[in-house]
Design goal:
two-stranded antiparallel sheet; 3-stranded antiparallel β-sheet; single chain; mainly alpha; 5 strands; elongated
């Protein structure tokens, strides 16, 4: 039984670690590109300062024929143009964001990986406690609750940052046939894992309370 539990914990840890590493990777990629642009100077520097990722949704979802006529790309295998529908893009355009919005987005961008690292540390502590057969106690309940809170806060920060960017982009950018929407950055994985952690934490808490009541009755 403990082996199966360890396997499940390892899978969850991999998912959480992937979320942290992917966030850090894209932050590092953006910082590296910005540094290279700053060293080179010129218009490239201005473009890199205004790089934004955004999701796309066709405006008329019910009409497939309109989808097929929106865009096309060349198939290198056959040399023919094939119809495509884009679901996301990276655009180089200045947004209409105020200074406080840019500062807030930057702070959230730095805060999210720190929160996720803290969540991974809590989960590792929980796995170690389980392997030591130190499972049903209030310390683990607190760990599960904090783990859930941190993951949900990370999701909220990511979603709010994406919302600010999306609203500002909509003021300066319009693409024929498409509506701008949230990009892949606002992953729902953290929200699902956070809610699951809170549920498991409350199950632990209920079990501990029932045990304590039974001990008092005896």
């Amino acid at each position: 039984m403990k082996r199966r539990l360890n396997i499940l914990c390892a899978i969850v840890l991999l998912v959480m670690s992937w979320s942290v590493l992917s966030t850090l990777y894209y932050m590092g990629l953006g910082a590296t590109a910005g540094l290279q642009a700053a060293l080179k100077g010129g218009p490239t520097k201005e473009k890199m300062a205004n790089i934004n990722a955004v999701g796309l949704v066709p405006k008329q979802l019910e009409n497939v024929n309109i989808w097929l006529s929106l865009d096309s790309v060349q198939n290198e295998k056959t040399g023919q143009q094939v119809p495509v529908v884009y679901t996301g893009m990276v655009v180089f355009t200045d947004t209409a964001a105020d200074t406080w919005e840019k500062v807030l987005s930057s702070v959230m961008g730095l805060l999210i990986p720190l929160i996720l690292v803290g969540a991974v540390v809590l989960f590792i502590q929980l796995v170690i406690a389980i392997n030591r057969s130190d499972i049903f106690n209030w310390r683990n309940v607190r760990r599960l609750r904090w783990l859930g809170i941190l993951l949900i806060v990370a999701f909220g920060c990511s979603l709010f940052s994406e919302y600010l960017l999306l609203e500002n982009l909509r003021e300066v950018l319009s693409i024929p046939g498409y509506e701008l929407t949230f990009s892949e950055a606002s992953r729902i994985t953290n929200l699902v894992l956070g809610l699951c952690s809170l549920i498991v934490g409350e199950v632990f808490a209920i079990g501990l309370k029932m045990k304590e009541e039974q001990d008092l009755t005896i």
